[in-house]
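Entry 14. Ran structure prediction on the chain below.
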Amino acid sequence: MKHAALAFHGVSAAYRDELVLERIDASVPAASLCAIVGPNGAGKSTLIKAALGLVPLTAGSVTVLGGTIAAMRGEVGYVPQSESVDWEFPISALEVVLMGSYGRLGLFRRVGRAERMHAMDCLEQVGLTAFADRQISQLSGGQQQRVFLARALMQRARLYLMDEPFAGVDAVTERAILRVLGELRERGCTMVAVHHDLSTVRERFDHVVLLNKRAVAVGPVSTTFTTEALQRTYGGRLAIIDDAESGRTAVVAGS
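Output, structure tokens:
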């Protein structure tokens, strides 16, 4: 069995006095593509932020690549929700990608030719070399998402945490993201993504965390992403379930 690239040990977290995550025990094996799935308000984004150390825990701990996030931060790439980014900030696509080098360079080393060449390589991986000098406010939503994926690639990370990378993107961006994720997995990297579209979980991911404030089910998609587990996760909000045996497609109300 693969060792865990990311593990939550009895993790609880709260915003003000409201418990958002409750005693989460879950692990993600190395070199896997993992989806975090659950209804609105389930704590999916909070779980990603807990792994990054951006949310204080009220209980438990998180292991990242065998250590703490403080020790392993340089090995972790993050792609935030597009709606959480100030897209009007006057900065080019290339400059955004170069930000991914800051963690390794430190505060006092300047970005040099090698970093710029690598940043252009990262933009090429996501199909955006022609837009390197374009202001991010002038890019489409899908292009903006690809820029932030390129920034994560710039970090040369081993673990990538992504908050809804497929939300609202066009078909070109979707294909670009899937291609990059496949290449990263082949290199032994681990990707964890908050994901909403239940009908694509089986084709895109090999591991899943079904979450509704608690970890309802965790494991390989082939054995964990089942009708029974989805019903326990979504309750009455689940209308039709994507079931491998029946071939039905999932339709989730309010997800």
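The radius of gyration is 18 Å. Will compare against last week's run tomorrow.
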